[in-house]
Amino acid sequence: MNWGTADTLVRRLDRLDFPEPGLPAVDTVPIEIIQMELRSVAPITVTYGGGSPEPWDVRVTLSPTVPPPGSMTVTKTHPNGGTFSAQFNVQPLFVFTRASPPAVRVLDTGAQPPLLLQTSGTPPWVHDCPNIVLDTQCGTNFVPGINDPTDTRVQVPAQAGPQAERNLTPACDDPDGDKVCTPDDNCPTAFNPTQNPNACVLPGLDYWETPPTGAQHDFSTDPIPASFFFPTSDPFPGTVCLGGESLNPGATGTGRHGNPPSRHA
Questions:
Q1: Which terminus, N or C, of the chain has the lesser number of Cβ atoms within 10 Å?
Q2: What is the pLDDT of residues 53-98, one digit of tens each?
Q3: How far apart are CA 75 and CA 16, in angstroms?
């Protein structure tokens, strides 16, 4: 997956910690969805009085209403990565477009409960991907959706003995007990005496892609009401099949929840 095919931008809101030396290591952080671009793979059919069918295309993005954060659980199973699972709340905004004669209708679900989306299975991730050629950036410490089976590095054990000791002052703040004071500790809440840069992953943005099988939204339990499209239009209780629409290759996002308090504060 690369920026050219990514259709969803997710922000990790807190740091992931993977204390040395043991694996597997598991951590969970809150996440939020910042951008999403989906489009119908085929138009839906709108009817009037049971007849006069006409096609409407559907685009799905995010409502201005911000839902609660979701969560991501990341398991580190080898020195360069592992697997993860995630679920997040989505407040969709549907844009319906008729080509001829031109017409646009917008359905904002902000007043309704958000949808809960989940990852399919347990996708892989890596800290970096030196053995794989990608259009996306590597070496950003967390690259989701990538598996690097050629990586043969071994876990570096934590140092023991005098070489691992640091000269600490009585006022040294060392919450993880790794003998590295917080101002100098690259991962201040993960036991990391070797200062391995991959003992933690800072908050950041992840580019996601809708599976090739697509996604769908079912209106059967909450149909689009009569006369939504035009007077005399019938209710729409059908299913919209959706595929990803590429984000801007340089897409970035500002967190919709601002900067929530860190669990590491």
A1: C
A2: 999 999 999 999 999 999 999 999 888 889 999 998 999 999 999 9
A3: 10
Separation of first and last alpha carbons in the chain: 34
Measured CA distances, 176 to 9, 77, 122, 194, 261 (Å): 32, 21, 29, 13, 19
Q: How confident is the model at residue 229 (pLDDT cuts 50, 70, 90)?
A: very high
Q: Using the 8-state DSSP alphabet, how is residue 184 labeled?
A: G
3-state class (DSSP) for residue 16 = strand
- The reported pLDDT for the residue numbered 120 is 76
The tokens describing 250, both together, are 């340089």
Of all residues in the chain, what percent carry a pLDDT higher than 70? 69
Sequence-distant (6+) residues with CB within 8 A of 94 are 58, 59, 60, 106, 107, 108, 109, 240
pLDDT at 149: 57
Three-class SS of residue 258?
coil
Asked if the model's pLDDT at residue 103 lies above 60, the reply is: yes
CA atoms within 13 A on the CB side of 165: 5
Q: How far apart are CA 209 and CA 246, in angstroms?
A: 9
For 111-130, b where at least 16 C-beta lie within 10 A, e where not — what string?
Answer: eeebeebebeeebbbbbbbe
Contacts of 194 (CB under 8 A, 6+ apart): 20, 156, 158, 159, 164
Under 8 Å between Cβ of 87 and 119: yes
